[in-house]
User: Which sequence fits this backbone?
């Protein structure tokens, strides 16, 4: 498995947390299959960061990144391809994030085959049974002040995918139907350890805190690296956690809530609950948290990485999607896979507490817990020898090594 094959792959992630993680994991997987890996990355530049207080995802940021990165990327890729000192293995393929539109032309000019990594959901072409002929991609996903730019971004992404030599997906066959030319080789993070791509320092004190909690008693709360909540939502979340009477671990990322002294302003019933059975951190080692025996439920925004990480550990979810693919992911979690409950109509402390108690303690949540445990088994068995992702990875390696483009 670890035999080197004298072929090199160039990987190019979009510089956001939810995109860096799967690309680094993929790098490790392909390195384990014998490929040499070069990762090109942009200078982390806040001016292309998609978060603003009012719009969590600004398509103009991505459009600007696509414009500004093209020339420097082409220069670097050509250097890699020509490898003047002959020290490195030849570049066989570029694997770029699907959101980087310019990489198709650049790869073609440089004479390199291009594959794409889809870091989000992969069901854009699925029909929506209730609303024929709509497809998932037709559903309103992102509230943005820049709808034309968003359309353009999604259109370019879809065209770029069609035009690529193949699509690598961080998913597995038991979760969804996969069309041909796609390589579902996930869950990536369960394929083995990879280097941490965390942009924020992980607070490991939450692991020793979890060690002291009873099995399956804790609700873990985190809304990923981009989503933000308003002040009133923040206090409703706090009150819901207090009302649930369950232990909680809550990630409050810097900048994710308006106002900095909010915690002190929260009502005393929450502060007492926090003291007694809660823990707040700025950023957690999430995969380790979800794998911890004390964690019994995950209140999530349903970013694809979080969703898959939760499924892989058999942790049922409370779904609170914010934008883009998260809404579709959440609907699959609650209505298709049945491994979570949806906080459908806004945030209300009583409903939050009910959802937490349902998943952690009530008999009513037993079926959801059981299904989550079954999916954990599926997520692990697909990676074993002969499993669907295992076979798909063989197919991917052969595809890259084949001379066709
Ligand atoms: C973005 C989009 O928002 C999401 O819709 C898309 O599917 C992927 O890209 P993000 O919102 O950050 O991602 O969410 P998610 O996909 O869940 O990725 C977050 C990553 O950060 C996960 O791998 C998670 O393990 C990690 N994380 C999160 C931590 O390591 N610590 C934390 O405290 C929180």
Assistant:
């Amino acid at each position: 498995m670890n035999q080197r094959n004298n072929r090199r792959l160039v990987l190019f992630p979009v510089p956001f947390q939810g995109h860096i993680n799967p690309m680094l994991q993929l790098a490790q997987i392909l390195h384990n299959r014998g490929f040499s890996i070069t990762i090109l990355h942009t200078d982390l530049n806040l001016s292309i960061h998609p978060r603003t207080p009012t719009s969590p995802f600004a398509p103009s940021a991505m459009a600007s990144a696509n414009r500004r990165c093209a020339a420097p990327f082409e220069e670097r890729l050509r250097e890699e391809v020509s490898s003047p000192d002959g020290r490195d293995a030849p570049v066989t393929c570029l694997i770029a994030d699907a959101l980087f539109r310019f990489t198709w032309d650049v790869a073609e000019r440089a004479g390199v085959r291009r594959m794409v990594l889809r870091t989000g959901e992969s069901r854009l072409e699925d029909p929506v049974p209730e609303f024929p002929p709509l497809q998932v991609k037709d559903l309103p996903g992102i509230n943005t002040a820049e709808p034309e730019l968003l359309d353009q971004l999604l259109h370019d992404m879809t065209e770029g995918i069609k035009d690529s030599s193949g699509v690598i997906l961080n998913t597995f066959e038991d979760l969804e139907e996969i069309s041909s030319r796609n390589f579902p080789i996930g869950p990536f993070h369960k394929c083995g350890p990879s280097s941490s791509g965390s942009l924020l320092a992980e607070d490991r004190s939450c692991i020793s805190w979890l060690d002291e909690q009873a099995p399956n008693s804790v609700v873990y709360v985190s809304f990923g690296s981009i989503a933000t909540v308003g002040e009133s939502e923040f206090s409703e979340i706090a009150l819901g956690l207090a009302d649930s009477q369950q232990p909680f671990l809550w990630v409050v990322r810097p900048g994710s809530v308006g106002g900095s002294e909010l915690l002190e302003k929260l009502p005393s019933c929450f502060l007492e609950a926090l003291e007694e059975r809660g823990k707040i951190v700025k950023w957690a080692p999430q995969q380790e948290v979800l794998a911890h025996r004390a964690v019994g439920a995950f209140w999530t925004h349903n970013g694809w990485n979080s969703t898959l990480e939760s499924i892989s550990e058999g942790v049922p979810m409370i779904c609170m999607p914010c934008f883009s693919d998260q809404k579709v992911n959440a609907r699959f979690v609650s209505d298709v896979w049945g491994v979570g409950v949806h906080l459908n109509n806004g945030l209300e402390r009583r409903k939050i507490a009910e959802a937490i108690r349902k998943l952690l303690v009530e008999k009513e949540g037993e079926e959801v817990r059981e299904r989550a445990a079954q999916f954990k088994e599926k997520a692990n068995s697909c990676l074993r020898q002969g499993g669907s992702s295992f076979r798909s990875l063989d197919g991917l390696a052969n595809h890259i090594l084949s001379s066709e483009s």
